[in-house]
Amino acid sequence: MYYAQMKNTVKAKDDSFGITTPDDLYAALSGIWCEYTCAPRMRKDWSTENKTLGQCSVTAFLAQDIFGGDVYGIPLPDGSYHCFNRVEDNIFDLTSEQFPEALDYTNCVLQSRDTHFAKEEKRQRYIYLKEALLKKNG
């Protein structure tokens, strides 16, 4: 299951997705995440047993659409970031289970949608995920 540190209850600010809580979003995306929505450099390792692999940024920005808040990144050894959400005092990371070790959610870097979606393939994966969610739940 995903990582969550919630002091308040996080509720959707946009109900057009048919999602109320992060648990609802995780459950819905569990049936949508696929090799196509996975980061291209990780696709060869993606499987239904590791469905959150390579899904972090597109998932975090979609969660931001639904719940508001900010997207932060945990610096990784390869120079990239693992993205997660912070809404007020609440932190949730819907794709943390792809890592065998616990992640450190302190001293993270605010992530920019414009920077991430400057990569057209990532923007297209986000659009696919968003449209699939709307089709399934909207």
What is the 3D form?
globular
Question: Span between N and C termini?
Answer: 24 Å
Bin the strand percentage.
Answer: 15-25%
Mean pLDDT: 94
Features:
138 residues; alpha+beta; five-stranded antiparallel β-sheet; globular
Give a nutshell description of this structure.
By secondary structure, this protein is an alpha+beta fold. 31% of the residues lie in helices and 16% in strands.
Could you walk me through the main structural features you see in this protein, from its secondary elements to its overall organization?
This protein is an alpha+beta fold. It has one domain (3-137). Helices cover 31% and strands 16% of the residues. It is built from four helices and five strands; from the N terminus they run βααββββαα. The chain has helices spanning 22-30, 56-67, 113-116, 120-137, and strands at residues 3-5, 70-75, 81-87, 90-93, 109-110. Strands 1-4-3-2-5 form a five-stranded antiparallel sheet, covered by helices on one side. The relative contact order is 0.22. The mean pLDDT is 94.
What topology does this entry show?
Layout (H helix, E strand, L loop, with lengths): L2 E3 L16 H9 L25 H12 L2 E6 L5 E7 L2 E4 L15 E2 L2 H4 L3 H18 L1
Antiparallel strand pairs: 1-4, 2-3, 2-5, 3-4
Helix pairs in contact: 2-4
